[in-house]
Each structure stands twice: as structure tokens, then as C-alpha cells.
Amino acid sequence: MTVYNVPHDFLWGVATSANQVEGAWNKDSKGMSIADCERFNPYQDLNDYQKVNDMTTAEIESAIQDKSSKSWGKRHGVDFYHYYQSDLKLLAKTGINSMRISIAWSRIFPNGDDIKPNPKGLEFYDHLFNKMNELGIQPVVTLSHYEMPLNLVLNYNSWYDPKIIDYFDRFSKVVIERYHDKVKYWIPINEIDSIIRHPYSSAGLIKDRFPNKDFKEVIYQSMHHQFVAAAKVTKYIHENYPDLKVGSMITSTMVYPYNSDPRNMLKATQVMRQSYNFSDVQLRGKYPQVLLKQMKDMGIHVKMSNEDLQLIKDNTADFVAFSYYSSVCTAYDTEGLKITKANRTTGVYNKYLPTSEWGWQIDPIGLRITLINLYDRYQKPVFIVENGLGAKDKLTPDFRIHDQYRIDYLRAHINEVLKSLSEDGIELMGYMIWGATDMVSASTTQMSKRYGLIYVDLDDEGNGTYKRYLKDSYYWYQKLLSFKDEIPVSYLTK
Which residues are the active-site ones (predicted)? Predict the structure, then answer.
């Protein structure tokens, strides 16, 4: 029997974020976050990513006045805050040895600028990490995952204000000091590159709050502040807890030329080159020339002190973490070409690939290419911390979920991952399915776009029992992990 040999310490897991699963948005002194202001709108064109992810001050004020949670998906999540023990037990039975979670900043420092942390918030994560450790599940922790305290938006203009660096530093040091013996892997900021595409959810930036400024310049200045904040976290961990590891986490969408026309080849090269801007800063320790030129060409001036640049240079990340869901094509001239969706972006349709219900093209080989590209570029361990399929799962009358389409997606992607591990000479830390249970979608704030191995009885309007049901994909992943260090190739090539 031909097998894939997997390192004994390979991290097999699942991934979530606090704002999408925890709920309990106003319990135990938690403060309001930017995610709590995102409401599902069934009448909105979900293909218009810009509109879906924009926010206005008026919408924030309206959200503050509405104390309900039903239509505000991220206020109720899937109530992981109360279900975490039973959820973790179910997940542990699959055989996972790791799980990515995030710590809600607004649960620890409700206003973001508080002097002292919220004891109730710390108590929750005490119990969570204790339970994970008890079950043999290593936490991989993100410190900022689309859940900034709302007070920092309203009174400081978010990451544009350099004071936020200090507030984030205070929050980070509190939780790292408290959990350094329970958490080995830390990611300061989720998909740090996403601030360019959706500045509100990534950094709490609202265009109408900067009426006399170039909003692009606001975004890029905030980007720099996030780089500095992440470098400070890295410095603190390396100096105080050298056995811990810090990662740079980016969004990865493979981009191909539409065809072999050299002009399209050049366009794809340019797009992919820009996609490395953020990881270059965090892993090479300096701004790439392409990013500096891009800002100059746009007339953007970002304030960067020599101290900032030295801090970034001296405190690079230990590993490359990334999300991967799909790929797109690009062309120098897209007129007349079919456009398709990807992870909060769009591109030219690839006729060689199938498409999910949300228009994302399914490309397992693109994941393998991404692994090769990232490892060759940085020569540091790579870590797939998000990969999965969003779909409209159906609960049958006998309470089953036959998600063969998700099994097919996972099988094909994991097969390419293990091929790469075996044949491409990369150093791969692990693979995590997005998500664990179903959760509220980050991009559209809806429940019906389901990713989990465990079905949660909840609809887009917040109606349901919250009861959990195991999907067919749960059992498939459980069997995969039962093979441990020797996975039969046949299990992934059926």
C-alpha cells in the first residue's frame, strides 16, 4: 500500500475566529466590537464586496442603538462562549491535535484603551485553553481577527491613530504573559494584507470619518501602524519567551494568466508580486520596492520613523501562515471576459476549474503552487491555517448532513498538500480546515454559507436551536486522522 509519510509533529486542525463563533457579545462586561455592527442584509448584492464590507458612521450609530442580536450574526455567533466544552469534545474525537482561535480584544479590554483587563474575559480564555490542553488540542492564537473594540473607532479613528499601537501592545502583553505556557503559536494580525480590500473589518476604518483626507493614505498609514504593532508583539515574544513562535498571516489567492499571451503573463506576475507586499515586510523585515513605488505613484505619504523601520527589520516572523480557498485568472485587457469571485475579490474566470455555490473556483493544485512559492520566497516554515468550502448544507429528516461536495474539496486539497510535503522539499507545519463548527460568515455575515464539519441549527436571521449535528465530512476527516503518520494515497484519490 502506497502511503504519504507525515511528520509526527504535523499540526492537523480546524480554524475559527472569536467574532464568528463566540457570541455573548454583551456578556460578562465584554465591550462592543466592530464585528457587532455588521448586519446580514438579505436584499444586498453579496457579489458587491466593496458595498458589503463598507461601513458608515450612521450605520454604526444605528447598530449601537439596536440592542438585539438576532439579525446581527456576529453578536450571537454559534454561542461557542457557552458551548465550547462540548464543541471541543466533539472536535477532539476527530483526532485533531491543534485548533486556531482568536482572543477577542474587546472581551479582555472592553474599550480597547482600558488600564486594566476584564477579569471575566480572562477567566473565559483560562477555561478555554485549559480544556484544549486537557484534550490534546494545541491552540494557535490570533490576537486581532476582525474584532477591534468599537470605542477605538469612535474616539481614536482606529489604526490610523498611532495610540492604537500602544493599546494593542498592552492587550497583547497581558494575554501572552498569561498564556505563554499554554499557547506556543501566535499570529498578531489575521490576513494583515486585507486592510487594502476591506479596511473596516480589518482595521475599523470608516471613510466618512476622514472627510478632509485621502482615504487611501489613511489606509496605508494604518497598514504601517499594524506592521509596527505586529513587530512589537514579535519582539516581546522573542525576548521573553524564545520557545514560542510568531507567524505572519496573509490571504493567498493564486493568480494565473488568462492565457500564454506574454502581456497576460506579465499582468499575472505583477499581481502576484504585489500579493507578497505584506508578507515581505513581516518576513524580510523591510518594505519591498514595489510597495514603496506603488505608494509614491498614488501620491501617498506614509509617516515611517527610522525607529519604526528598525523595529520591523529586527523582528521578523518565524513562519508563514496563510488562508487559501480558490484561484482566479487575470488579463491585461478584461473586456468581454467572464468575471468570477474569489475570497473578497474578483478575477477572470478559469474554464478549467469548477466553481462553488458562491462563485469561488476550486483549485487544489493552486494550493500546492502557493506552498512552493511561499516556501521558496521566504525559506521559513509554511502553515495552512485556513482552507475549506462554503456551501448551503441541508439537514435531512433523519438529522444527517451529506456534504460529499465538501469531502471532495478537502480530499483534493489535502492530497495536493501531502504531495507537496512528499515531493517539493517544503517545510510545512500543518493544515487547518476552516472551520470547526458552522459559523457566521466573515464576508457576508450569514449562517447559510456553511464551512464547518459540525452543523449548527441556526439560520441567517438568528433563528434556531443551536443544536449540533455531525456532517459526513466530520467522519471523513476523523478517518483520515486515524491513519496518523502514514496516510494511504488511495484514501485521498478515490
Answer: 386
DSSP structure string for 361-429 = BP-HHHHHHHHHHHHHHH-S-EEEEE----B-----TTS-B--HHHHHHHHHHHHHHHHHHHHS---EE
User: Cα separation of 432 and 263, whole Å?
Assistant: 36
Return the CATH fold of 3-492: TIM Barrel (3.20.20)
Domain ranges in the chain are 3-492
- Residue 43, pLDDT > 90, answer no
Return contacts of 335-339, CB within 8 angstroms, 24+ apart.
337/258
Q: What is the Cα 369 distance to its own chain's centre?
A: 20
Write out the H or E segment, with its range, that includes residue 346: strand 346-348
Question: How far, in Å, are 213, 307, 467 from residue 296 at the CA level?
Answer: 16, 21, 53
DSSP, res 253: E
CA 246-14-53 angle, 5° bins: 80
Q: Which of 194, 205, 113, 193 has its CA nearest to residue 159?
A: 205
Decide if 28 contacts 118 (C-beta within 8 A). yes
Question: Mind listing the pLDDT tens digit for each residue in 76-86?
Answer: 999 999 999 99
Q: How far apart are CA 8 and CA 483, in angstroms?
A: 12
Write out pLDDT tens, residues 426-453: 999 999 999 999 999 998 899 999 999 9
Contacts of 481 (CB under 8 A, 6+ apart): 12, 94, 95, 96
Name the residues annotated as catalytic.
386
Cβ-Cβ contacts under 8 Å for 468 (sequence gap 6 or more)? 83, 86, 87, 90, 437, 454, 455, 456, 457
